[in-house]
Design brief:
- The chain is mostly helical.
- It is built from 4 helices and 2 strands.
- Strands 1-2 form a two-stranded antiparallel sheet.
- Helix 1 crosses helix 2 and helix 2 packs antiparallel against helix 3.
- The protein is globular.
- The C terminus is likely disordered.
Length: about 80
């Protein structure tokens, strides 16, 4: 992490990247995201091996509420990158 950059800023950058992807190819990215969620729900070790290379998808599993993050794997993004 860069000096002086907060965890919240890193999260917001990752979410921005994720939202850009979803704007360009929402179906493909949400399908890939669903595959990661399936691996996670099955407690597959492969999840951790693969997700470390795609932190924007990992960030999509969380929402920022006030000053903390909440795990919400069922949140999908529309083409505008908004929660539905």
């Amino acid at each position: 992490m860069e000096m002086g950059v907060t965890g919240r800023e890193v999260f917001e950058r990752l979410r921005f990247t994720w939202k850009e992807r979803c704007t360009q190819e929402p179906t493909a990215w949400n399908r890939e995201r669903s595959q990661y969620i399936q691996l996670l729900s099955e407690e597959e070790v492969d999840f951790w091996l693969h997700i470390q290379d795609d932190l924007p998808i990992f960030s999509s599993f969380f929402v920022l509420r006030g000053s903390h993050f909440e795990f919400e794997p069922d949140v999908l993004l529309t083409m505008n990158g908004k929660r539905r």
